[in-house]
Specification:
The chain has one domain: NAD(P)-binding Rossmann-like Domain (Rossmann fold). It has helices at 14-25, 38-49, 65-79, 102-130, 142-145, 151-171, 196-205, 214-226, and strands at residues 5-8, 29-34, 55-59, 84-87, 133-140, 176-183, 235-238. By secondary structure, it is an alpha/beta fold. A seven-stranded parallel sheet has the order 3-2-1-4-5-6-7, sandwiched between helices. The radius of gyration is 17 Å and the shape is globular. GO terms for molecular function: oxidoreductase activity. Keywords: Lipid metabolism, Oxidoreductase, Steroid metabolism. Pfam families: adh_short. This is 3-ketoacyl-ACP reductase. Belongs to the short-chain dehydrogenases/reductases (SDR) family.
């Protein structure tokens, strides 16, 4: 039986890279993307290929429909059907809402939410054709509760959560499952701006008394991608009982 193919956006580092490594260890073909970090993306590709799998890299903005069209054309040319889509690409923006300008708003909206539309819109026809597929969206607990000084980020993640629930209802008759993981504080470069006392206070506020690990996100993603087909339309918090 030929290997399945997973497409992961934002996979040069952090959560996306951890997810890619997990799927590589399970023998999947991989398509990985990032917007700008070409050197890191190529390093990740080499690491994945050292595990004996095939990997296609693509550098581009997933918020552009034309770019995503090119990505899917290249992926299908090399691997055929995309079996699993993982929408992980995302950026944060921290600051007062009143200080935010339209350019920043539009950038985070395109990167975090429009990218999910673009990738799903191009992946779904192939999944419907074979009557199976998995879509997993990487979201945030701030999409559930909202975060002060992260209004735009919270809005995009809340949009992903609602998008996930609605799309799952449309695609369930075609045996396609759509779920989201609402991550809490995960140990990635996105949190490295915090001073030590700020990080200590953050960890103290989490009942698990630590940050989450990228490998833990990857394990849950793989469970959703390979597991129970009746689990559908869910936004699953992964936050150490934080929120």
């Amino acid at each position: 039986m030929s290997a399945k193919t997973v497409l992961i956006t934002g996979a040069s580092r952090g959560i996306g890279k951890a997810i890619a490594l997990k799927f590589a260890k399970e023998g999947y073909n991989l398509v990985i993307t990032c917007r700008e970090q070409e050197t890191e993306l190529n390093k990740t590709k080499a690491e994945l290929e050292s595990l004996g799998v095939n990997c296609l890299t693509y550098l581009g903005d997933m918020g552009s429909y034309e770019v995503v069209q090119e990505l899917f054309a290249a992926a299908r040319n090399q691997f055929g059907t995309i079996d699993v889509l993982i929408n992980n690409a995302g950026i944060s923006h921290i600051g007062l809402f009143t200080d935010m300008n339209f350019k920043d708003w539009n950038e985070i909206l395109n990167t975090n939410l429009t990218s999910v539309f673009n990738c799903c819109h191009l992946a779904i026809p192939g999944m419907i054709a074979v009557q199976k597929g998995k879509i997993i969206n990487i979201s945030s607990v701030w999409g559930i509760t909202g975060a002060s000084c992260e209004v735009a980020y919270s809005a995009t993640k809340g949009g992903i959560n609602a998008f996930t629930k609605a799309l799952a209802k449309e695609l369930a008759p075609s045996n396609i499952q759509v779920n989201a993981i609402a991550c809490g504080a995960i140990d990635t470069q996105m949190n490295q701006f915090l001073e030590k006392d700020e990080m200590d206070a953050l960890i103290e506020s989490i009942p698990a008394n630590r940050l989450g690990k990228t490998a833990e996100v990857a394990e849950l993603v793989f469970q959703l991608a390979s597991g129970n087909d009746y689990l559908n339309g869910q936004v699953i918090p992964l936050d150490g009982a934080w929120i």
